[in-house]
Amino acid sequence: MPIPSHCRTLGRLAALLTGITLASPVLAQSPPAAPAASDPRLLEDLVAANRILADQGVLDGFGHVSMRHPERAGRLLLSRSLAPALTKADDIMEYDLDCKPVVDQGRSSFLERFIHCEIYRARPDVMAVIHTHSQGVIPFANSTVPLRPMFHVAGFLAAGVPVFEIRQHAGLSNLLIADAALGKALAATLGDKSVVLMRGHGDVVVGPNIQVAVYRAVYTDVNARLQAQALALGGQVTYLEKEEGEKADRVQQQVVMRPWELWKQKAMQP
Question: Which CATH number fits domain 40-267: 3.10.20.30, 3.40.225.10, 1.10.10.10, 3.30.9.10?
Answer without folding.
Answer: 3.40.225.10
